[in-house]
Amino acid sequence: MGERILIIEDDEELGAELVRQLQRASYHATWIRDGDEALEASLDEVDLVLLDLVLPGTYGLDVLKSYRARSVVPIILLTARSHTADKVRGLSLGADDYITKPFWPEELLARVRARLRRPSLGRDGGGVVRAGALEVDLDARAVKVGGATVELTRVELELLEALARRAGRAVARSVLVEHTLDSARGGGERTLDVHVSRIRKKLGPEGQRVATVWGIGYRLEVDR
């Protein structure tokens, strides 16, 4: 193992316990106790972030937005809140998972291991993402199903690439619209849905992997 995990948690007892559990599992843990310090933290050498939502200083969701704007590092939210709206909001802003307090150490470690096993496209954003018979080559900008090339329009390709870059994770509709559609030509969420529908048809049976995440957006299913 040896992956580097950044913990952002203001509760002294919980933070210390998280450090102990992660180090015992052979991870390298760094602990930050407030949101203002978290905003200044470098993510260049971080493999995963555990982020509490309620922090002194900068609020956890604002830290999440800042991190997601500059990194694809996996982020798991730690929250004592049971309201679905909080979790949906966090996921829509780019969080990869959440765990509700209180939790057993075994549950946390299982979530961490599962997230770190998910394919990461690295910090250079290249590589080939494979999902069943589907292959998305981010360097060559090519898509294949069962070895056969699939012809996609520019927008369709950019949409699929955006999902592939975060394979297995939900990508908010607003993010997809902002980064792949032309707002000057009336590109919006309805237009996004049309493009997704066309992508699914062109991918044939593998089109089911472009899954709808209700209330958030879309996700490319890696394992099925």
Keywords:
alpha/beta; Rossmann fold; Arc Repressor Mutant, subunit A; 2 domains; 4-stranded antiparallel beta sheet; 8 helices; 21% strand; elongated
Structure description:
α6 packs across α8. The two termini are 26 Å apart. The chain is built from eight helices and twelve strands. It has two domains: 4-117, Rossmann fold (3-Layer(aba) Sandwich); 128-220, Orthogonal Bundle (Arc Repressor Mutant, subunit A), CATH 1.10.10.10. The protein is of the alpha/beta class and 224 residues long. Mean pLDDT is 85; it is low at 120-125. The chain has helices at 12-24, 35-40, 60-70, 84-92, 105-117, 154-165, 173-180, 189-203, and strands spanning 4-8, 28-32, 48-52, 75-79, 97-100, 128-131, 134-137, 142-145, 148-149, 171-172, 210-213, 217-220. A hairpin with a 2-residue loop joins β8 and β9. The strands form three sheets. The protein has a five-stranded parallel sheet, sandwiched between helices. Strands 6-7-8-9 form a four-stranded antiparallel sheet, with helices on one face. Strands 10-12-11 form a three-stranded antiparallel sheet.
- Helical proportion, percent range: 25-40%
H/E series: EHEHEHEHEHEEEEHEHHEE
Assign the CATH class of the largest domain: Alpha Beta
Q: Radius of gyration in whole Å, from Cα?
A: 18 Å
Spell out the CATH superfamily of the largest domain: Response regulator
Q: Give, in spatial order, the strands making up the sheet with the most strands.
A: 2-1-3-4-5
* Large-scale geometry: elongated
**CATH architecture field of the largest domain:** 3-Layer(aba) Sandwich
- Overall average pLDDT: 85
Q: Could you tell me the number of beta strands? A: 12
Q: What name does CATH use for the topology of the largest domain?
A: Rossmann fold
The number of helical elements comes to 8
How much of the sequence lies in strands comes to: 15-25%
What number of domains? 2
Secondary-structure-derived class = alpha/beta
Unreliable residue runs: 120-125
Q: How far apart are the first and last residues' alpha carbons, in Å?
A: 26 Å
Main sheet summary: 5 strands, parallel
